[in-house]
Amino acid sequence: MIKNGHHHHQVNTAAGKDAGTTPGAAACSPEKRRRRIRVWCDGCYDMVHYGHSNQLRQAKAMGDYLIVGVHTDSEIAKHKGPPVFTQEERYKMVRAIKWVDEIVEGAPYVTTLGTLDKYNSDFCVHGGTERYYTMSLVKCKRTQGVSTTDLVGRMLLMTKAHHSNIVSMKGHSPWTGVSQFLQTSQKIIQFASGQEPQPGDTIIYVAGAFDLFHIGHVDFLEAVHKLAQKPYIIVGLHFDQEVNRYKGKNYPIMNVHERTLSVLACRYVSEVVIGAPFAVTKDLLDHFKVDLVCHGKTEIYPDKDGSDPYAEPRRKGILRTVDSGNSLTTDAIVQRIIKNRLQFEARNQKKEAKEIAVIQAMKRKEEEKTKERAQAVL
């Protein structure tokens, strides 16, 4: 059970120890704190995942107000190939990340000092790409083991190597290799803010796979959030093997550890139960003091014995079907990828070749430093 923020996200400047380098740290100094520090990030944010969220978390820890620029479909198609999600979908996904204060729609693909001046930003934070022509630049740690390229690859490969019970460290690039993510308690703590339910909160329970956490999930959670004046939303995440039982194929695309972080990053979520039971039982409802159980308009799969997993909340009269107005599913996203398979495969190959070149350059630079240190000793 992982507690998340649910009313207003509190900025924790102490989280900045993994958030960046000296410029970011200086931005949070007592002298700088006399005014609000505005931080700029930008990107495609296509198929938003916990790697994107982690970048934005680190960026927010470097200042007070986070502005995120999101590129248009045409700019992405021009520079990288076709995006999986439309720009309107990507705008809404980024807005739903709890560390984001403001987004700029149609942000320029290349960030300049002029961009920072236009949006009154103190500095720009990025995770390792090269599209930045500004000295006001701070790097943050890139999250290894996940990228849009990686997730697209999982869908095209149709394997189960990414599931949490299968260890697979294959992959040429540490950023795009399949299933290289290793969960740690520290990472969960960084994503969760640990708020308990408060008096007067309406405790709402929802459960599912929440695979490839997407705009359909966001619209559903936003609709659930609007059901109460003070909602406290608990999301129960099923283990990989449970999801595979009722979804089949190579689902889930993201393993339970990855799905945990993706859901925790959503501003509408208060708490996450990792490995929630498939059936919503009386014990579960009593334990969390649940007032309301919600499910979308998607199919309710039966339990292993063929029983209704929502029988108990249905009996108690607390089950609510919520229509988010969005019919997008994980299956539909996979179909988008398959439809443009050749284009996405070409994009993936180009991206991995580029990252391998970066890694080789980093290794050469490190070898040169080692030689210089050895010569200095002599």
From TrEMBL:
Keyword Lipid metabolism belongs to the record: yes
GO terms (BP aspect): phosphatidylethanolamine biosynthetic process
Keyword entries, A-Z: Lipid biosynthesis, Lipid metabolism, Nucleotidyltransferase, Phospholipid biosynthesis, Phospholipid metabolism, Transferase
Ranges annotated as biased composition (Basic residues): 1-10
EC primary class: transferase
EC code: 2.7.7.14
Domain Cytidyltransferase-like: 40-128, 206-298
CDD domains cross-referenced by the UniProt entry: CCT, ECT
Record flagged with keyword Hydrolase: no
Region (Disordered): 1-29
Pfam families: CTP_transf_like (PF01467)
Pathways involved: Lipid metabolism; Phospholipid metabolism; phosphatidylethanolamine biosynthesis; phosphatidylethanolamine from ethanolamine: step 2/3
Any GO CC annotation of this UniProt entry: cytoplasm
NCBIfam families named among the record's database cross-references: cyt_tran_rel
UniProt protein name: ethanolamine-phosphate cytidylyltransferase
Organism: Echeneis naucrates (Live sharksucker)
